[in-house]
Specification:
26 helices, flat
Length: about 725
Amino acid sequence: MKFLNNLKSTYPWTIKHMGGIFQVQLKSVKDLEALATLDPKLWVALSCPVNDLEIDRRTLSLIDYDTDGRVRIEEMRNAVAWTLKRLAKPDSLFTGGDLPLDAINTSDPEGEKLLASAKQILANMGVTDATSISVEQAANTAKIYGQSRLNGDGVIAKDATDLPELQQLIAEIMDCLGAETDRSGEPGITQKKLDAFFTELKTYETWWTQGEIDSAKGEAIFPLGDDTPEAFNHLRAVENKIDDFFARCQLAAFDARAEAPLNHDVSLYKAIAEEDFSASRKDIAKLPLAKVSGTSTVPLFNGINPEWKQRMQTLCEQVVRPLNIGTGDSLELDEWQEIKQRFTAYRKWRESKPKTNTEKLCITRVREVLASDLGSQLAALLAEDHALAPRMKSVDAVEKLARFHRDLIRVLNNFVNFNDFYDESQPAIFQAGVLYLDGRECRLCLRVANPAKHAVLATLSRAFVAYCECRRKDSKGKFYIAAVFSAGDSANLIVGRNGIFQDRQGRLWDTTIVRLIENPISIREAFLMPYVRVGRFIGDKLEKWAVTRDKAMQKQMETGVETVGSSPTATDQKGKDTTSSSGGMGGFAGMLAAGGIALGAVGAGLASLFDTLKALAWWELPLVITGVVMMISLPSMVIAWLKIRKRTLAPLLDASGWAVNGRTLISPKLGRSLTTSATLPIASCCQFDERNQVRKWLWIALGISIFATLAGWTCVFL
């Protein structure tokens, strides 16, 4: 593409080195004008999503002119060029806020229309003396378009006219063909809908007229005149059910043994006897229309299946009685066949009906509309609305310019560069809020759709990432965030930990860690990690040993008690006492022996250590101790340092749909500002629980004793 070509710009850009990359600064209108010549390789972002960012989504949607849900470099350039062209005083972009009316460029007809539209909007709001227009005012379609029946969008609603007959026709068109949404939010019709409606009316009327012509020739297509379509619909509603009933009766007349099975077994009624019959029931509707017998007579009122009674009554009133067929409360088979025969011609004619949506209207109404000039009147209203389109287009431009005036520089400072993120003047648009958890405040939190999918790429960031589920009682849905912990340690960061997330609107959400990407957080944590691991290992081993010994001792005691209870004076064949001490005193002695060996090994090791220390000069001791400590901690510290210095934001954003164009490192200094721990206020007064005083002094005494003992041993050996 054109914008991907290498551009050799001679413009003297101001460039700042942040996050391990050079980032172009936008400080003046000339910088914005030269943005079209900036090499794409120097843009920090190549594209970003429209959704899930902490900036007005409508602004990003207006920049995204191809409406694919992403903002790219070329679209950003077009937005900047259009904004500069429409502003006479573009310096106000760096101030942001409401759009000053005197900043609009009126040197061309489009600018004049834009200013006139802005003033008209303010007039509709009742603030004719205003010198600026806000985004809220420019985007208030209910106020802007609600004051005018015609708004240039090609859609007219019922309130576009005061004539009842036109309002009725608009309602009928929407009922038959569906409605379009007017710019003011009301349902309405377009010229396309109007043309389609009258085309279908003419098709439908032509088909109906042909039926009347055929009927006049003796085919009796309309046995009930204009009421024939409705009567036929009532006939079809029960036709299959009545045919089924007569077929069952004929089978029962053929063989009386079929009568009982055809009426259904009584077990059905027993099964449903205790159920609710207040609502319609499909199982009952499947039963025969009436009680099957050997006589071919169907009742019209009494003895009818309850689910079919209303439809049979309607059939009698709308079809049977108007046709003067049958005068009693039932129909014979030949009478039913005659009714269907009377509609044979109509059925055949109806099958030839063209597919239209206007048959909802009766033929009388169809002909009334075609004979009137209502269609021409609606067409005139639509033409009048169309004539307003250029002026109303300027109204849309006012909203666009107001949004760009307020948000464009901020968008650029999160796209061309990441000033908002690195300068910390305000949160970047991808920072969703603040997470409070484990005594820390994390400000680098990104909204993510799928933690598992996001983590695949986010692992490359070399950051410690906690994915949290956020929820509120008054919110139907939940969402996820990826929180970066860049200071402190990870000792208490585990799946299942709960915290609080505060979004950019100030709302609080309950959060729970659901997934972790574990990486070193700080050098201090890396220094202590070997000792923590050794401590955990020793603690686990001691715990396992204690549990094992406890179980062994308990089992030994239970065995001893059982032995004493069953054989207090057990002897062997030589008469000697065989209550073996090997199971009691022998086991205890074995424990003492093992403990002595262990203590001896430890003592020997300490003696060897002190012999070594004895050979050193006093000033060499700190060096040796420091060397041992560094030998233990240095490898983990080096690994942590390498990962921390390469900690980067780019994979986190790429996993969220961005296309970041550089490393965008998170330095240790920036990390400490993005994640802060709790600190006590300077003027605070700390109070301690008096119940812990004795315990505290005991620990102090123990520590002094250990230190004195070690110091004495050192003096003796040295």
